[in-house]
Amino acid sequence: MVSRLQKALADTENRLELARAYYNNIATFYNAGLERTPDIVVARIARLKEFELMSGD
User: Whole-angstrom Cα distance, residue 1 to residue 12?
Assistant: First the structure.
């Protein structure tokens, strides 16, 4: 019983890490786009803000 719970917890932690990495990749791509021309002009007009990256803490 305990070993199944430990495996389920480890699987959940792995899925969370994958989701966090996916989000960080998307956020990094988005943030880089806010610094490119002509995207920066549109970003300033629309008052778009950078996304914060997630940490594993």
Answer: 17
